[in-house]
From TrEMBL:
Pfam families: Methyltransf_11. GO terms for molecular function: S-adenosylmethionine-dependent methyltransferase activity. Gene3D superfamilies: Vaccinia Virus protein VP39. It comes from Nocardioides ginsengisegetis. It comes from the Bacteria. SUPFAM superfamilies: S-adenosyl-L-methionine-dependent methyltransferases. The lineage of its organism: Bacteria, Bacillati, Actinomycetota, Actinomycetes, Propionibacteriales. Residues 38-132 form the Methyltransferase type domain. GO terms for biological process: methylation. The keyword Protein transport does not apply. Keywords: Methyltransferase, Transferase. This is SAM-dependent methyltransferase.
């Protein structure tokens, strides 16, 4: 990683993804997590305070050392044991069917090959295990979509590969999951923020 990607972007993400407006989406995504959980794109640990009591441990996949350091205080106060488990969601260092649940929040936008990462998540989930997600992506509104396509090249350069136009439910289904719950909305804010804030919150089952 370069200086911008390793030292600046994680701090931008820490602030932008830590806004109070994202809290309800994290709460919603975490409902129903149970047992041993794989979290891809752990970042600075904004989900730690949202894990339900049924979670017994978390394996955190996080490529950025800076992001991991920023999560230290949250990890220290967590009632749930959290261990760093690899740097790349596209190639998980975990056995087949070794997790009960998986969690991804505002992470699939930056993974170079999100379908490969989701296939890896499916591999390490037990049969019937669930993937929980809250992700931003492609809006159904034509005017917003046009702006997303215009802004995406700049967004990718500034935010270390972050895409605005990924259809999250389609990617999840392509990876072999069955999407069982889905809600879509925009993050609160003025209309000019909509290209950056169309959110999918849902759950999918490993079939």
């Amino acid at each position: 990683m370069g200086i911008w990607a390793e030292h600046v972007v994680p701090r931008i993400v820490e602030k932008s993804c830590g806004m109070k407006e994202t809290g309800p989406f994290r709460d919603e995504a975490c409902v129903g997590l149970t047992g041993r959980v794989l979290e891809i794109g752990f970042g600075s640990g904004h989900n730690v305070d949202h894990y339900p009591a049924e979670v017994t441990g978390v394996a955190a996949v996080e490529p950025s050392d800076t992001g991991w350091r920023l999560s230290e205080r949250r990890r220290e106060r967590s009632r749930v044991p959290i261990e760093r488990s690899g740097l790349d969601g596209q190639a998980l260092d975990a056995a087949d069917a070794s997790f009960d649940s998986a969690l991804s929040t505002f992470s699939l936008c930056t993974i170079p090959d999100p379908v490969q990462a989701l296939r890896e998540v499916r591999r390490v989930l037990r049969p019937g295990g669930t993937l929980h997600f809250a992700e931003h992506g492609l809006s159904p509104d034509e005017r917003v979509r046009r702006w997303q396509h215009r802004l995406e090249p700049v967004q990718r350069r500034v935010a270390d590969g972050c895409h605005l136009t990924r259809d999250i439910p389609a990617l999840v289904a392509e990876a072999g999951f069955e999407v069982t719950d889905l809600r879509t909305t925009y993050l609160p804010g003025p209309a000019p923020s909509r290209p950056f804030g169309y959110v999918y919150v849902g759950r999918a089952t490993r079939t």
